[in-house]
Amino acid sequence: AQKITQTQPGMFVQEKEAVTLDCTYDTSDQSYGLFWYKQPSSGEMIFLIYQGSYDEQNATEGRYSLNFQKARKSANLVISASQLGDSAMYFCAMREFGQGAQKLVFGQGTRLTINP
Amino acid sequence: DVKVTQSSRYLVKRTGEKVFLECVQDMDHENMFWYRQDPGLGLRLIYFSYDVKMKEKGDIPEGYSVSREKKERFSLILESASTNQTSMYLCASSLAGFGSPLHFGNGTRLTVT
Predict the structure, then answer these.
(1) Predicted confidence pLDDT, tens digits, chain A (116 residues)
(2) A29-62 burial: b if 16+ Cβ within 10 Å, else e
(3) Which residues in chain B touch residue A43, judged by CB atoms under 8 angstroms apart?
(4) Would you call A106 and B43 a contact, using CB atoms and an 8 Å cutoff?
(5) Fewer CB within 10 A of the end CB, N or C, for chain A?
């Protein structure tokens, strides 16, 4: 069963607009962590933001924020005031507590294109 | 800054060859990982290691093995390469903490002909 689902294969957004990238996850654990990564065309994987399942506040890092809705099992990434350099693949990932706790499971990714 | 170095950026091998992909990290991280990335499938975990000489299977270990003899080095081995192993291979490392992010190398694009 797919643990991380990103339903938007591609998104096109005008520069300076805000954009929300969807991520839903499936787990029966109470303790887990959610991560977002950016992969530009150069191929490097860049860590953006982390949210722990017990964190009461939504995580924020600069222009990135994570809209964490635990009951709905969603962890959407919000990018405010998008820039041309935000064009990239974006991956949501989850780490579950328990056996194999160190591994990170990724979604299929969303390709974001920012138009000038 | 953490540096994760993969020995080759591009590699072309023939079917049936034994292939070694090497990965070295310089930040004394406990955990190391090998993923493969294919379009539409995201990143899929092949193997990971949480300590020297320790290894755990990921989601797609078939056709692969790994070796971790030293803490900083994690090798992925394709015992007998096949064309369906043509892919981008990404190595990563992290600290042991639950919230610790993975730091990735630049990837090795392997083509098996």
Answers:
(1) 569 999 999 999 999 999 999 999 999 888 899 999 999 999 999 999 999 999 989 999 999 999 999 999 999 999 999 999 999 999 999 998 765 567 889 999 999 999 99
(2) eeebbbbbbbbeeebebebbbbbebeeeeebeee
(3) 88, 106-107
(4) yes
(5) N
